[in-house]
Amino acid sequence: MISMILKRKEGATFQMKEKQYIWRLTLIMPLLILLVQFGGRAQATSTIVYDDTLTSGWANWSWATVNLAASSPTHSGSASIAVTYTGGWQALSLAYPGALNTSAFTKLHFFLHGGSSGGQQIQLHASLAGGSNGPAVSLPAPVANSWSEVQVTLSDLGATNNTIVGLVWQDSSGSSQPTFYIDDIAFSDDAHPDGPVFGTMSLQRSAVPADGVSGVAVKAAVSDPQGSGDIASVTLNGASLGQGTITLRDDGRHNDGAANDGVFGAVVTAAVGTPTSEAMLTVTARDQAGHTTTASAGALVILAPPGGSVPTALPAGPAWGTNQWGDHWQANSGVPWQYVYQYITYSWYTDGWGGNFVGRFAQQAWDEGYIPVVTVYLMLGLPPECGESAACYASKLQNATAVSNYLAAVTEAANQASGSQPVIFHLEPDFYGFMQTSNYQNGVTQPDSPANYPVALNITGYSNNLSGFGRRVVDIIHQTAPNALVAPHASVWSTGKDTNTIPTTGVIGMAQSTAAFMGAMGGAQADLYFVEWSDRDSGCTGLAECTPPRPWWDTTNQTLPRFTRWVLWANALSAASGKRLVLWQVPSGNMSLDNTCLHYQDNRPAYAFSHGRDLVETGVAAVLFGGGASCSTQPSTDGGFIQAQGAIAYDLPAAPGGLVGDTPTGPIVTLHWTENSEPDLWGYRVSYQPVGGGTTTTVDVGISNAASLLLPTAGQWQITVAAYDAMGQVGPASSPITVTTSSDAEQTFLPVVLK
To answer: In terms of DSSP bridges, do strands 53-54 and 13-14 run parallel, antiparallel, or are they unpaired?
Structure first.
């Protein structure tokens, strides 16, 4: 269905429709849960495509003359899109390479202006993920010198409950046409004015294994103009989780806060066999009259099992560390960090840095109880210096003297770190990425093979190419320092693509390509891979060292760029390579800083600390914080945020409160309790034993704040509940309650089992 609403224009002026402002999705409490704030019914499921500029994630892929910043005419704001078809079948094409799930929307609406001529013949279609197009829809002809609103249902575009990668407004006359204008493009739903209204939504985690057990707490605040009694149901579409429709409840027993407080909740799982993907979860509220409102709760990654295992010399994770060792900040912080890292450049090898620098660093780390990480950054400064590029590095590798000097420096570093305790050699951030990206840029036949690069290695048993060189570096460290683990650096951009501008299937393919290149360059013999999120704080925008500015990632995982895309890539990398990962040099800013040197804002530390277990199940064994440039925020200059969150990560969770047991039914008692608020909360364990003594039995109930116990014999039982965190640490038990059962479980259920 297409509708067109004309706005009258009189003389040289016309009535401007008031611009509709959309409440932006914001992170209200980043350290507890992902919060998505919706500001009213119409805004709950509106997504802007163009409003003076293209919204992040959208790109202009047009084959027509297009101006995205036409200053006149405009429907609202300061700009519109001017489109001129200078030939037949040209098009305004707005692409969303990251793929947009449309399940929360029912229509696309925008405004057309016919310019001085009007009458243009235009058809619209949606580009669908997978490469096909939806049906072309003929649009009403724009009116000369006037704006008109056009609404096209997604069902007409073949895009209902689908995934799209673009919108195309195409000439349908087969010839050139005069300029027309388009403005205020957005997706929306058909929410009824008397229907339910969404408030705050949350996902307690952003990634989950497809095991049918690991739970994700979903919460949605819902109100209704006719009162809470008019809300008939709140449900989640579980199709992307391998489930059916999942009911959210407001009874205080489904991770929904207090009963009848307007917050509906449920714990959902991904069924065994659900394919690895990024799913956009949607929630629908229905009232007694049948009016419905649908909104997105955010993206959730369905994880594959991570590859390999954490080396036995390392903590299982999540483990944490920083780069703050020189002034003993880390040791004096009061936080039991487990890692510390330090760069070495080629000047270390030529100048010594005071002698035995690597050995002194490693020994101090061991003395203070940390695993030292030596970030080997030698290639950039290796003579002859020629800058930072694949071409420069390739020329160095064909220089026998340069190759010999590089290997000698690696050998010396390993010698200095040799000992009885573990040390990790983190190899060459960016180097591997530069070399693989160059293969793609130059169109080589096998871009995922490092064998394309000749190397003057000339060592028996190793090929004279980049593959042999990479293997030799790994072998030198292992042979020289048997206590050392080796971890090459895998760059998310190494295939020349961006996880946030391609469909999710392409993200997995990116990771698999990187794994193939790394594995052939010594990665197969290595122990771990290092990865990163960003090398600068996103709040740093005015310095040369921060140019270009690093984009903010959406912590609600609603819009691109977002964290879940990186999680999908990292999980696929771990699975394809058989390696666990270390997330390195995470920018150290937080949102309370003032964006000055050493105090730039970023949201990544808060996200990492509140998603520690997600990262572990993705394949990340440790997270290391540190600034990547001279003015970057450091853990020691962030106002105490990382120190405080580190303390929480290592502290035990509090004892749960409010434990209540319903009146038992035979041998079964139903329990519920108040949810804990720790950002790294991971689940609960319920324990019971006979009053007066006896065997204590403990049951893991996951993240749910309610459970039903089948008690084995009639009598009095003492029951407690304890919380555990992302590190697996179990906190103190709650105050006990006593329940009395009236029958034995064996007597009640054994006949049923025997049938």
So the answer is: unpaired
Measure the CA–CA gap between 678 and 725, rounded to whole angstroms.
8
Length in residues, the chain: 755
Residues 208 and 161: beta-carbon distance below 8 Å: no
Instruction: Tell me the pairing of strands 292-303 and 207-209.
Output: parallel
Q: By C-alpha distance, which of 271, 269, 293 is closest to 283?
A: 293
Alpha helix ranges (H) inside 284-430? 329-332, 346-351, 357-367, 390-397, 400-417
Kindly calculate the radius of gyration of the chain based on its CA atoms and give it in whole angstroms: 29
Q: Give DSSP secondary structure letters for 376-396.
A: EE-TTTSSSP--SSHHHHHHH
Residue 375 CB-density burial (10 A; 0-12 exposed, 13-18 middle, 19+ buried): buried
3-state secondary structure at position 704: coil
E strand segments, 442-504:
484-488
Chunked into runs of 10 residues, the chain (755 residues) has average pLDDT values of: 39 28 26 34 65 94 97 96 97 92 88 96 92 90 94 89 92 96 91 88 94 96 95 95 96 96 97 94 93 90 97 94 94 97 97 96 97 98 96 97 98 98 98 98 96 97 98 98 98 95 90 98 98 96 93 90 96 98 98 97 97 96 97 97 97 97 94 95 96 94 95 95 95 97 72 34
**Three-state SS across 225-273?**
CCCHHHEEEEEEECHHHCCCEEEEECCCCCCCCCCCCCEEEEEECCCCC
**630 CB-near residues (< 8 Å, 6+ apart):** 545, 597
103 vs 45: CA distance, rounded Å: 10
Amino acid identity, position 649: A
Q: Where does residue 318 rank: exposed (0-12), middle (13-18), buried (19+ CB within 10 A)? A: buried
Torsion on CA atoms 407, 409, 411, 414, rounded to nearest 10: -140
Q: Distance between CA 205 and CA 209 in Å, rounded?
A: 11
